[in-house]
C-alpha cells in the first residue's frame, strides 16, 4: 500500500465493533456524519441471527483506526436500511474527530480489470490487513466480482469496507460477500448505494471527473445516448441540458458555442 492510498483511507475508514468491543466489520464515512456499511455487519454487531427486514433501533460502536481515536457511537438510520441489498447507513452521534473527511465516490461503470485494494480484519491477526486484487464483471444481482491472486484474500471481517480503485483513485464500492476458498469476493457498486442514500437524505460526493472516462466515446455516440434518455427534446437548449446531465465533462470539453452547435447539428443530420 503506497502512502498516497493509505493517506486517503485514514480519513474515512471505520471499524464496526460489537458489544464486546471486538471488530466485526468495516465501514466508511460518505456524508457529513453518515457511514456506509453492510446490514449484515450491523446484524452481527448486535448479535442477531438473521438480518431484520427493518432497521434495528440501536446504537453501534465505531472507530477510525488510522487516526487512533476513541470509539464513537452511531445510530442506524431507519430510511438507510435495505435488507435485500445488504446496505446500512449509520449517523454519528458524536462530533467528528479531527482530520476525518468523507470519501469521494465514483460510479463509473467500466471497472473491469482495474486493480483494487481493501482493508479488513481477518480475525487471524491482531490488526487489520490489506488485500489486493482485480475488479471483474457485474453479476445478475448487481454486485461486482472481485478476485485476489496473492497475499491476503478478501474474507470475513472485510464486509462493509470501501473498495478503492487504484486506477481511478476513488472508492467504487463496498465489500459484501467473500469466498476465501476460491479467493473471490463481491462488492456493492456505488450506483447501488445512491438509491438508499437518497431515500435517507444522505448527500455524498461523486467523482466530478467520472464523465471524462465516458468522453472516450465519439461525440455522435454521446449525442445518441443523450437522446435515448428522452425522445421529447423540443429545442437546442433542452438538448444541451440533457448532454450536460449525461456527461458533466461536456462543459469542459466543449468550450465554445460553435463546438456545441456542431455537436447539435450532428444529431440533426443523424
Give an account of the 3D structure.
This protein is of the alpha+beta class. The chain contains 8 helices and 12 strands. It has helices at about 5-10, 40-45, 190-200, 210-215, 220-230, 235-245, 250-255, 255-270; strands at about 15, 25-30, 35, 60-65, 70-80, 85-90, 115-120, 130-140, 145, 160-165, 170-180, 185-190. The strands form 2 sheets. A 6-stranded antiparallel β-barrel has the order 1-2-3-6-5-4. Strand 1 and strand 2 form a beta hairpin. The longest helix is centred in the C-terminal third of the chain and has 13 residues, at about 255-270. The model is unreliable at about 210-215 and about 245-260 (pLDDT under 50).
State the gist of this model.
The chain has helices at residues 3-9, 39-45, 190-199, 210-214, 219-229, 236-246, 250-253, 257-269, and strands spanning 13-17, 23-29, 34-37, 59-63, 72-82, 87-92, 115-120, 129-138, 144-147, 162-165, 170-179, 184-189.
Give me some keywords for this one.
8 helices, globular, 29% strand, alpha+beta, six-stranded antiparallel barrel, 12 strands, six-stranded antiparallel beta barrel, 270 residues
Low-confidence stretches: 208-217, 246-258
- The SS-based structural class is alpha+beta
Strand content: 25-35%
End-to-end separation in angstroms reads: 49 Å
The Cα radius of gyration reads: 20 Å
Amino acid at each position: 500500500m503506497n502512502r498516497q492510498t493509505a493517506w486517503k483511507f485514514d480519513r474515512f475508514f471505520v471499524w464496526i465493533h460489537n458489544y464486546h468491543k471486538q471488530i466485526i466489520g468495516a465501514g466508511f464515512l460518505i456524508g457529513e456524519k453518515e457511514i456506509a456499511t453492510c446490514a449484515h455487519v450491523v446484524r452481527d454487531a448486535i448479535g442477531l441471527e438473521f438480518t431484520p427486514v427493518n432497521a434495528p433501533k440501536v446504537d453501534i460502536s465505531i472507530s477510525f483506526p488510522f487516526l487512533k481515536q476513541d470509539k464513537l457511537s452511531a445510530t442506524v438510520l431507519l430510511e438507510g436500511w435495505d435488507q435485500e441489498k445488504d446496505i446500512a447507513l449509520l449517523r454519528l452521534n458524536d462530533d467528528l474527530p479531527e482530520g476525518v473527511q468523507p470519501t469521494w465516490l465514483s460510479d463509473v461503470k467500466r471497472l473491469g480489470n482495474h486493480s483494487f485494494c481493501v482493508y479488513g480484519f481477518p480475525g487471524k491477526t491482531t490488526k487489520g490487513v490489506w488485500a489486493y486484487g482485480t475488479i471483474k464483471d457485474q453479476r445478475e444481482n448487481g454486485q461486482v466480482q472481485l478476485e485476489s491472486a496473492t497475499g491476503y484474500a478478501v474474507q470475513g471481517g472485510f464486509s462493509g469496507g470501501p473498495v478503492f480503485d487504484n486506477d481511478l483513485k476513488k472508492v467504487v464500492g463496498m465489500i459484501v460477500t467473500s469466498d476465501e476458498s476460491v479467493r473471490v469476493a463481491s462488492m456493492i457498486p456505488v450506483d447501488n448505494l445512491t438509491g438508499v442514500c437518497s431515500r435517507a437524505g444522505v448527500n455524498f460526493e461523486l467523482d466530478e471527473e467520472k464523465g471524462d472516462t465516458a468522453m472516450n466515446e465519439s461525440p455522435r455516440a454521446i449525442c445518441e445516448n443523450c437522446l435515448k434518455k428522452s425522445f421529447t427534446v423540443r429545442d437546442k437548449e433542452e438538448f444541451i441540458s440533457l448532454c450536460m446531465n449525461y456527461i458533466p465533462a461536456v462543459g469542459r470539453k466543449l468550450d465554445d458555442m460553435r463546438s456545441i452547435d456542431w455537436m447539435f447539428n450532428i444529431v440533426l443530420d443523424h
